[in-house]
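new request in #modeling-help
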Amino acid sequence: SLSELLRKAVSKLMSSTSVDEKTLNEFIRDIQRSLLISDVSVELVQKISENIRKRAVQEKIPTGLSKKEHLLKILYDELVKLIGEEPARLDLPKDRRYVLMMVGIQGFGKTTSTAKLAYYLKKHGYKVGVICADTYRPAASIQLEQLLKDTGIPVFKADGIEDVVEIVKRGVEKFTSEGIKTILIDTAGRHKSQETLMEEMKKLQEAIKPDEVMLVIDAGIGQQAGAHAEAFHKAAPIGSIFLTKVDTSAKGGGALSAIAVTRARIKFIGTGEKIDEIELFDPVGYVGRLLG
Amino acid sequence: TQLSEKELEKLAEEFKLTLITNDVALEVAEKLGDILKEKLAGMKFKRFTDPTQQIREVMSNVIEEILPEENNLEKMFMEIEEKKSREPYVVLFVGPNGGGKTTTVVKFAKLLKDRGYSSIIAASDTFRAGAIEQLKKLAEQVNVRVVSQKYGADPAAVAMDAVMSAKANMIPVVLIDTAGRTEVDINLLEEMKKIKKVVKPDKVIFVGDALMGNVVVEQARRFNEYVGLDYIILSKFDADARGGAALSISYVIGKPLLLVGVGQRLEDIKPFNKKLFREILLK
Ligand SMILES: Nc1nc2c(ncn2[C@@H]2O[C@H](COP(=O)(O)OP(=O)(O)OP(=O)(O)O)[C@@H](O)[C@H]2O)c(=O)[nH]1
Ligand SMILES: Nc1nc2c(ncn2[C@@H]2O[C@H](COP(=O)(O)OP(=O)(O)OP(=O)(O)O)[C@@H](O)[C@H]2O)c(=O)[nH]1
Ligand SMILES: [Mg+2]
Ligand SMILES: [Mg+2]
């Protein structure tokens, strides 16, 4: 469980004999180092540290808890406030149309994750179709088609149309007429300094009004995660996060900043390059990696 | 006067935090903080004057000493020129998934072309969906030939194919694009090692993503351990990257930063500018 895991991660605190000012400072210092190595933003680390210090000093220790257990509980609360304590559940409706748009920075794993999610949903009984709305990347639709080639999941692509809104409208129309209810849209990579691309995403979201906009984030992202997520969220409100490349040595702390600015939860993680390397997000695993 | 221990500690903390905010890995920022303390500890400051400017200069020097040297691109062009009438100059590109290798390889081919050197690109990513088609379409934009086989082919075999073709056609440079791989996948690290062993490239270039944080330390270490890196190229600098990854990589494996990618067009690549980096890192 999350609390057992926290206890293990903060074992130094548990082995000390008392919680005086010095121990509290060392505890906070250790937490800060772990979080910073895990790419949590400096701003968020300072905020969490302040909250731990303030509550440790001000709060009355809940009955039945030792001073140490109280500190652990505070840390637990701070992390759960951001990422939630329940594992993600598959909550997409099966019986009505559901349009999910994947967005994110170049190379972070959108196309691969779109294919993974499509296959995952199909295996769980959804009628899925994928629209390639990336008109920039050479062979983007070919990449999607190759990823999905043994799954029977149809891919709708541009074939001469330049306008992404037009592509998606036609794709949704075609899939709907074929009885496909769950439609995933792969979009081009973009970042906050590319105004034209951010504007395109905004126009696409406003014209199509997808049921969900999922932000794809590379677990290795550093201190710029929050700023980028904020820009995406301003242009097209983010409903959920797909954290990729969790199978590397990256701890994914950047995702916390993305969560903080979008209020979205992480729904899925990518654990490799193959189409079945996708899992529902589990906060216990995530916090375990975060606190090393 | 000299700075007190308390003042030194405060300055080191500020310096560390600035570096970390600019994406320098924690272990590197801590080491640089220690170096700053050592340098400042010995210094004497004039009484009644504001030491800020002097301190800033010391911080700038600490970074300056770690950042790699410039002008490696010119050195490389000289080597290519020297070798061109004898046999092809072979460059192997490796790096993590999605870091910008394929785009960078074609950008590099364009750089060479603008300098008067033709090249052949080996499509040695025989694994990822759409990799061969993506490379071919990019290369078409600058009229550079791609040598490829089927998906699933041996990457080293495709590379040797390209080298043979370059030899037969007197083409001076061969650029090898490989599949993305993680620093924890032993099989793929071994595969990369084998490609180098078979192909014997003149240079191995690591292409990484400037937006990445602490993971670049492990990436640089492991890739360097398995295949020996000659140069680093960091892409996506146009995405408001602060450049800390460059400092981290330089500190950890000491290999020069050759170029930085500053966009998705094939002309969007620039030589590494030390002064610009120093300024960005100290913001
Ligand atoms: N190791 C690992 N690699 C991944 C994962 N997800 C995606 N990748 C790889 O990351 C690279 C980039 O993935 P893409 O799906 O092309 O990324 P993208 O965001 O669509 O890229 P653009 O469309 O160019 O913006 C590919 O080599 C993928 O195989 C993951 O969970 N783990
Ligand atoms: N903004 C920006 N995007 C870049 C830059 N370099 C590459 N990209 C984009 O990043 C994405 C991934 O680039 P690729 O060249 O496919 O990366 P890769 O390392 O070959 O990826 P894999 O082969 O899948 O591991 C593409 O959308 C590129 O257009 C850059 O300097 N700036
Ligand atoms: Mg894509
Ligand atoms: Mg590639």
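bot summary: The first helix of chain B runs from residue 5 to 21.
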